[in-house]
Fold this protein.
Amino acid sequence: MQTLDTMLITIDADDPRPLYQQVADGIRELIASGGLVKGDPLPPVRQLATSLGVNMNTIATAYRTLQDDGLIAVRHGAGSLVASCTITNRTRAELLSPLRPALTQLVLADWPLGKILEAVKQQIHLIKSGSS
Amino acid sequence: MQTLDTMLITIDADDPRPLYQQVADGIRELIASGGLVKGDPLPPVRQLATSLGVNMNTIATAYRTLQDDGLIAVRHGAGSLVASCTITNRTRAELLSPLRPALTQLVLADWPLGKILEAVKQQIHLIKSGSS
Amino acid sequence: MQTLDTMLITIDADDPRPLYQQVADGIRELIASGGLVKGDPLPPVRQLATSLGVNMNTIATAYRTLQDDGLIAVRHGAGSLVASCTITNRTRAELLSPLRPALTQLVLADWPLGKILEAVKQQIHLIKSGSS
Amino acid sequence: MQTLDTMLITIDADDPRPLYQQVADGIRELIASGGLVKGDPLPPVRQLATSLGVNMNTIATAYRTLQDDGLIAVRHGAGSLVASCTITNRTRAELLSPLRPALTQLVLADWPLGKILEAVKQQIHLIKSGSS
DNA sequence: GTGGTCTAGACCACG
DNA sequence: GTGGTCTAGACCACC
């Protein structure tokens, strides 16, 4: 059981992703890292909104996205909580397709295979440990 | 030297990426795979547009993106060509940041590290060989 | 005369209906099935609330809804009871309007008329027999 | 091929459904009736919004709902169109569950089975013919 | 007090 | 000109 105070999500205006997706991705990482486990409550929409300095609706959209993923449950009038820590019902192709352009950039930057794998391993470690 | 007819870029309306980015990513993969090398001409904007069934501006935007990468040179009135086969001027963080959310999905899907690395190796191989 | 212990109402967090309406609908089905008849007492708000694991106000709202239907009588300080087993004062249009979107879904799912009528017959039988 | 002018969707402030759902349900009926077929363009978000006297975002939400159903395709910057005329990937239980409370009301109103079936047949006919 | 919905209006991304 | 995103603020439904 985790207190909500550990919610460390950062919003970056220069990030190409829309704000609500940055928030959703941030919470996904928190769940992936074990920082949030099944049953943990999420902060109220309004609280997280003021805490991150964004609009209420932005957070609501992020929560709706996570609800569609089956990762969280939003209970009208009673707050939201982590419903599951794993994503299922997603095909291998759907999971891998966002990887393609990201890896293409590394190939074009002339990174050798070993360096890429090393970086991937490091990123996964960072995700699982909940760092930066 | 490669003829332009081998340009095999596929556009998918269900892909979350905007069309212009699908086009740009497609050309990036062609360059990464060696299917296009330095000096190779790119098809005229109009021709690629009609060939892919998209708007001319969509292709123009894609070319502009690639120009910003330094990968292609757009010569007003004289067509475009591949200017370089490697991306430089990109920080390690910029290159790795799109990897984060893609890998988070795999972690949430409960893929073990080995399976992820195997998939990454396979994807890189597909990119370098210019497959699917 | 029916004892209250046979109250078998199930609450489902994934149901799109609000909790109070699930409770009200459940009691409506119990009355429609003959599981509760005119004069039968309903469980006290507090008891049903703890029994279903929901808030007291949720039950109170459900009872108020049923009272508006004329199905139950809520006597301050003396418990509630089934006041009638039939709904009146409802226009044909009011009764049929919730059917429209439900049937539209079946039409969009390409169910032939016969299959829909069969399913309707089965559902009515389930309601009248008080099953699942 | 249908012109957009035939879009006859009515918004009712007294309807318990939220506005965006009334719009989505209205378009679902238009598709179910054959008034809109695969490939038909939908009116631009802004146009339908002013035409119905609601906010742009309300229509955008309705369109997003229909997109999630797979019924329409929304193409950023290029309008929306009907992508399919049938709903799939929905379990029998999911399709039938909204029928339960609607039928319960009719049972409580003491409608005999025959009258209910007759009304259901009529409603389906109205849906398929695109009437009121 | 919680989340849901809606509005008006702005700005941006896209085709 | 299209749809997407975001804001500020309001009101309602729900628990």
The first strand of chain A starts at residue 41 and ends at 42. Residues 113-129 of chain A form the longest helix (17 residues).
